[in-house]
Write a structure and sequence with these properties.
Aldehyde Ferredoxin Oxidoreductase Protein, subunit A, domain 3, 6-stranded mixed β-sheet, Aldehyde Ferredoxin Oxidoreductase Protein, subunit A, domain 2, 23 helices, alpha+beta, Aldehyde Ferredoxin Oxidoreductase,  A, domain 1, 3 domains
């Protein structure tokens, strides 16, 4: 990799291209490079929404070359957690950056007016987006694809919805048809820069260092992807295949983590969605899997008149808008997801915040005066749709608060003990036990994708292991994902890419890495992320688990306070070894 970094200053509308092969030679690409660029250009003590706070996008050496290397990494300071912000998205963005010859994009500053950024090869131009204000992410893409794709060139379009314009810390950014930088508030950071959208295209073809060796590695990976049992799962039912199995082991969060089994699991299972609602499989650019599942939602808006919308769904979305809210109707879940998509909210954060509001209302912490007359109860889709509409309008202080996430709401209004969040971040859909709690507490993004904590918990049901061994396995996986996320590979293919094939792939691209250097990168990248978090004020000694989580049964039983503290101590020791 040449280490081509495009810097864009939104304030002045200027750009410059810098080559930094040494940075990429040491940190490979993707998440590790983006972290180093965050150290260079960001202020850990600064305001995430200040003009000088950077947004960084990065791809890796495998991007758009090897199968399922489809992701782009976004790095920023999170307005939701106040610390490290990192999110990954698929679509066509990685391929467009690759075709433009850009390996990292650094955006700083704030445009005077709402704008969108057009990048073609190494040129960048700011254009007015004043007519897009308040437009949904979907509408913005339709307009821009027609306006900027007239030349016939293939473009990738990243954009925010109205939630990002309102600087909601749970606002996401949508890429192409239905992929998202979902977590930690990237949409708000882009909104703070008056950046409604980014359109990326390129016409460059980069030469291969060793074509024959490249093809040999490619063929092995291709064969693994199309014949892998795990990848077949992602294509057929996708992650919604997890709904029923997790409910059976009490691992499916239900009614705001009150229990782990949902009586409506069968009704919202992957099998049910596929049988009655699935209309299309799609794939990210250069992916042979096709894991994106699109459902059709048909709604009557007048007698014998119907609107039809296609809505993407996956396990996390079904958990957030289904079992968490006690909704067992796929139609209800899709209605909430469609509204969420148009506004540009992160569905996980939003679902957890709605669940907190519901439990707070049932406990009397919130009143009808707070909600403006809306009576909240689990299972009431109509009430939730009303809440979303009022949030979109910013109807009152309460509804504006809901856009800030459940940690903010609970600190201001009460109900902190049942506000399910870790470090300000609402968790993914796993109620499996202590290993997953450690993931949420100590993972660099507080994300279920930081390591394999939920898998370790589930494996304990069949083969109990000593606590120390569990922690070592968790840290080992956290490090390994630094490698995968630096290449940048979709984590659905984590079973396809082992160390041997990765080294062969790097060698075929002319990058001289060995196993020792790869493992050194893994350990260093993880430590650098924790260093940034500490500079932001993250303090492991101040970690708080929602009190409710000590009172409910998980897949592996009750969470024990002393055991959890021991795990935290061992984890922090292990990452420094």
């Amino acid at each position: 990799m040449n280490g081509a970094i495009l810097h864009v200053d939104m304030t002045t509308g200027t750009h410059r291209m810098i080559d930094d092969p040494e940075l990429f030679g040491e940190f490979l690409g993707g998440t590790a490079v983006a972290t180093e660029l965050l150290f260079r250009h960001g202020d850990p003590k600064g305001d995430p929404l200040a003009p000088e706070s950077p947004v960084i996008f990065a791809i890796g050496p495998f991007s758009s070359l090897f199968p399922v290397a489809t992701k782009t990494v976004a790095m920023f300071k999170s307005p939701l957690s106040g610390e490290l912000g990192e999110s990954h998205a698929g679509g066509r963005m990685a391929m467009s950056l690759h075709e433009a010859g850009i390996e990292a994009l650094v955006i700083t500053g704030r445009a005077e007016k709402l704008s969108y950024l057009v990048i073609e090869n190494d040129s960048a131009e700011l254009k007015s987006a004043s007519t897009f204000r308040g437009q949904s992410a979907a509408a913005t893409e339709r307009i821009l694809r027609e306006a900027e794709g007239k030349s016939g060139r293939k473009v990738s379009i990243l954009r925010i919805g109205p939630a990002g314009e309102r600087l909601s810390p749970m606002a996401c950014a949508t890429v192409d048809g239905s992929r998202h930088f979902g977590r930690l508030g990237l949409g708000a950071v882009l909104g703070s820069k008056n950046l409604k959208a980014i359109v990326i295209s390129g016409t460059r073809t980069l030469p291969l260092a060793c074509p024959k060796e490249f093809k040999a590695v490619y063929d092995i990976l291709y064969d693994r992807v199309v014949k892998s049992k795990e990848m077949k799962k992602y294509h057929d039912l996708g992650t919604p295949a997890n709904v029923r199995p997790l409910s059976l082991i009490r691992g499916l969060p239900t009614r705001n983590f009150s229990q782990g089994n949902f009586e409506g699991a069968e009704a919202i299972s992957g099998e049910r969605f596929a049988k009655d609602f699935l209309v299309q499989h799609t794939a990210c650019a250069h992916c042979q899997c096709g894991c994106i599942h699109m459902a059709e939602l048909r709604e009557e808006f007048a007698p014998y008149h119907y609107s039809t919308n296609r809505v993407s769904y996956d396990y996390e979305l079904i958990y957030a808008m289904g079992s968490m809210l006690s909704l067992s109707s796929p139609e209800d879940i899709l209605k909430l997801l469609l509204f969420t998509e148009k506004q540009g909210w992160d569905a996980i954060s939003l679902g957890c915040t709605l669940a907190w509001a519901t439990e707070s209302f049932l406990h009397g912490v919130l009143s009808l005066d707070d909600t403006g007359g809306v009576s909240l109860s689990f299972g009431d889709c109509g009430a939730y749709l009303e809440v979303l509409e009022r949030m979109a309008k910013g109807e009152s202080e309460f509804y504006r608060d809901l856009e800030m996430g459940c940690a903010f709401c609970a600190k201001k209004r009460g109900g902190l003990e049942w506000a399910i969040q870790y470090g300000g971040v609402e968790p993914g859909g796993y109620m499996t036990g202590e290993n997953f709690a450690v993931t949420c507490l100590l993972g660099v993004r507080h994300s279920h994708l930081d390591d394999n904590g939920y898998s370790i918990d589930q494996n304990l049901l069949n083969a109990p292991k000593p606590l120390e061994e569990q922690v070592r396995a968790q840290v080992k996986e956290a490090r390994w994902r630094m490698v995968l996320n630096s290449l940048v590979i979709c984590l659905f293919a984590r079973g396809v890419y082992d160390e041997e094939i990765i080294l062969q792939g790097l060698d075929a691209l002319g990058a001289k890495w060995d196993a020792g250097k790869l493992r050194e990168l893994a350990a260093k990248a993880l430590l650098r992320k924790h260093e940034w978090k500490r500079l932001c004020g993250f303090d492991p000694a101040a970690l708080v688990v929602p009190e409710k989580m000590y009172t409910v049964q998980t897949s592996t039983g009750m969470i024990d306070r002393e055991s959890l503290q021991q795990r935290i101590h061992l984890y922090l020791e292990e990452i420094r070894r």
